[in-house]
């Protein structure tokens, strides 16, 4: 059983965990691929709390590694050295397990320009590196990975050691834990959107999401993980009401929150806001939340479906509709949590919160701003956004 002690396993020494479940959460007819993963922690002494994340070290796809080796004219057996590694490893192992094959940078282009032997390649690289082209070059790089550059500039040649020296390390990905340690002390549940897309007429994937979805066999102790502690967590007083806003995979920590509150007999009321594209296909854990609602464990739920009607409806719209009740809860001491996309959702939800407090609290906008700042200071308003 996992216990609350410092484990020997951490970012420098991850635990080789076992993936025991890989289940599609979306229903047939959706364009989305959101998975529920169960990662077993038996034998690790890893402890997690609600709000923490599981860090996962992925590997790169073998076909991407093979394409790079072919473009570089390498076998993969060449010896390479990497910083912080005491011994040499093969070129293939470095590309497979240690280095990021995506996100080339301006520095990458500089190295390519230094190695270009064909006039056409040199002219094009010099253009990309001109100060006047910084904006267009940034867009160019966003749509490419290292294999694209090697194919577009065929005169560029690197030795295996030169190539690995120009790549960034493959870093772990952090996923909000979607299970309660009180209910599942020996395992972690994850809610992961599997990333697949196209740029520059080439299929791309999210390295870690497809690692879990496609490349990890069930039942093998092969997934390197560690627990990443978080500022994001339940109130110490379990009688305090909570309001949770988590559209899409932002639902993950709130599934954990609800499981924990139910398992430990918390008396505080629970209100969940969830949104996605379609109710019929994208209501993640809908059956579970429905059962919680039926049992009186989830006291209120606000659902927003952006594509089920002509006008798009988002979680912030549902919050505004329930503004008076939200203010009553907040004024009664409720803690408010937001998890998910930082680019738009979190900003829009934050604006809705300010507006609700201003309008239904009958205070000025400046006073509402101060009220929200005080909530954050008291950890009554917490955000886990990415």
Structure description:
- By secondary structure, the chain is of the alpha/beta class.
- The chain has three domains: 15-57 and 172-228, Beta Barrel (Elongation Factor Tu (Ef-tu), domain 3); 62-165, Up-down Bundle (NADPH-cytochrome p450 Reductase, Chain A, domain 3), CATH 1.20.990.10; 242-385, 3-Layer(aba) Sandwich (Rossmann fold).
- It has 15 helices and 15 strands.
- The chain has helices at residues 62-72, 91-98, 106-115, 119-128, 134-142, 146-152, 160-165, 207-215, 252-263, 279-282, 286-294, 315-321, 323-331, 345-360, 365-377; strands at 15-24, 34-40, 53-56, 79-80, 89-90, 173-176, 187-193, 196-199, 202-205, 221-228, 242-245, 270-276, 300-305, 335-340, 381-385.
- The chain has a six-stranded antiparallel sheet, covered by helices on one side.
- Helix 9 (252-263) links the parallel strand 11 and strand 12.
- Helix 1 runs parallel beside helix 6 (146-152) and helix 12 runs parallel beside helix 14.
- It is globular and about 70 Å long.
- It starts with 14 loop residues before the first strand and ends with a strand.
List the SSEs and their pairings.
Layout: E1 15-24, E2 34-40, E3 53-56, H1 62-72, E4 79-80, E5 89-90, H2 91-98, H3 106-115, H4 119-128, H5 134-142, H6 146-152, H7 160-165, E6 173-176, E7 187-193, E8 196-199, E9 202-205, H8 207-215, E10 221-228, E11 242-245, H9 252-263, E12 270-276, H10 279-282, H11 286-294, E13 300-305, H12 315-321, H13 323-331, E14 335-340, H14 345-360, H15 365-377, E15 381-385
Helix pairs in contact: 1-6, 3-4, 12-14, 13-14, 14-15
């Amino acid at each position: 059983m996992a216990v609350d002690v410092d484990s020997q396993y951490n970012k420098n020494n991850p635990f080789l965990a076992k993936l025991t479940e890989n289940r599609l959460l979306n229903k047939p007819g959706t364009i989305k691929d959101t998975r529920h993963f169960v990662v077993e922690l038996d034998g690790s002494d890893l402890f997690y709390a609600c709000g923490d994340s599981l860090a996962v070290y992925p590997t790169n796809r073998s076909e991407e590694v093979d394409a790079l080796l072919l473009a570089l004219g390498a076998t993969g057996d060449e010896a390479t050295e990497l910083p912080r590694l005491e011994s040499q490893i093969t070129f293939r192992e470095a590309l497979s397990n240690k280095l990021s094959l995506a996100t080339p940078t301006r520095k990458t282009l500089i190295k390519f320009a230094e190695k270009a032997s064909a006039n056409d390649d040199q002219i094009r690289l010099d253009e990309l590196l001109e100060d006047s082209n910084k904006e267009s070059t940034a867009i160019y790089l966003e749509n490419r990975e290292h294999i694209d550059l090697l194919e577009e500039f065929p005169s560029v040649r690197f030795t295996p050691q030169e190539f690995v020296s120009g790549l960034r390390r493959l870093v772990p990905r952090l996923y909000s834990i979607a299970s309660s340690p009180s209910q599942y002390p020996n395992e972690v549940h994850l809610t992961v959107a599997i990333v697949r897309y196209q740029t520059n007429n080439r299929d791309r994937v999210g390295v870690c999401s497809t690692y879990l979805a496609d490349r990890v066999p069930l039942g093998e102790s092969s997934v390197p993980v560690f627990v990443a502690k978080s500022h994001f967590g339940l109130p110490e007083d379990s009688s305090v009401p909570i309001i949770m806003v988590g559209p899409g995979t932002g639902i993950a920590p709130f599934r954990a929150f609800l499981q924990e509150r139910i398992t430990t007999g918390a008396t505080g009321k629970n209100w969940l806001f969830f949104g996605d594209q379609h109710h019929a296909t994208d209501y993640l854990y809908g059956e579970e939340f429905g059962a919680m609602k039926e049992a009186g464990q989830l006291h209120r739920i606000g659902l927003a479906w952006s594509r089920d009607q002509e006008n798009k409806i988002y979680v912030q719209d549902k919050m505004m509709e329930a503004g008076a009740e939200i203010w009553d809860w907040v004024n009664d001491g409720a803690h408010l949590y937001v998890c998910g996309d930082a680019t738009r959702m979190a900003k829009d939800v934050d604006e809705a919160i300010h507006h609700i407090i201003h309008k239904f609290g009958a205070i000025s906008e400046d006073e509402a701003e101060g009220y929200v700042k005080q909530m954050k200071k008291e950890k009554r308003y917490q955000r886990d956004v990415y």
